[in-house]
Amino acid sequence: MSAARSYKTRAIVLRARNLGEADKIFTLFSDARGKLDAVAKGVRRAKSHVAGRLEFASEAFLTMHRGRNLDIIVSADIVRSRFASVVDPGAFATAHLLVELVDAFCEPDLPMPEVYALLGGALGALASSTEPATIVPRFELRLLDLLGFAPPADACVRCGAPLEGGSAWADLEAGGLVCERCRPPANDLCGLDSADVENFRALGARRGGSAKAALAATPAVARAVDAFVSYHLGKRPKSRRLLDELSLRPAVRA
Questions:
Q1: Residue that terminates a domain, selected from 21, 45, 80
Q2: Within a domain: residue 253?
Q3: Which residues pair with 162 in a beta bridge?
Q4: Phi/psi class of residue 34: alpha, beta or left (left: φ > 0; alpha: ψ in -120 to 50)?
Q5: Based on the number of CB atoms within 10 Å of its own CB, is 44 exposed (0-12), middle (13-18) or buried (19 or more)?
């Protein structure tokens, strides 16, 4: 049987680009279909009834119509607007990084409800976070885990020796942490002391599991996680540069 011409889905807006004089193509991450592109016709006109409901990082309940090349957004009802959450420059840069990672890692039309829940939860946390960038390392590790790229943290990935109570190094090619004996002679490895190793392990733990989850990363762990993400992505995320620049700016006092 052929698929119904119309369907409904919940989706988070990842990005948008102009099409013609009045339309836009939106890249969405939906709970049922994963990542997809869809066109909203006339959305750039002043009288459009969906324009304000398809803002960056917003979550909406969409009625869609299947098209020949692109599906068409017929209507949109806001589930969660992220506008107030991303007004702050740090939150804005963080949201862009979270969205960029999901956009880059996830293939079109591949349902990934756990990634959808992860992204929605992380974007929602921006509203109450005083330091939005601290959300990123745990999000990155959890995303790598859901995609099957999670770096093991319990034992050396080369020899299998347990890493309890000792130092370790992030070996990007091996895909995890290595012990002193297996550490390759490279200058760009991220070194972690015993406290960092424990933090790395807790940061990637699932909530409700046997291991206690951590929400914030030590500086060394944050660098290591960033290195793993860039390695698997094949490049450093563009949004990371803006986030780094903001972290170096002096705080503005009222």
A1: 80
A2: no
A3: 155
A4: left
A5: middle
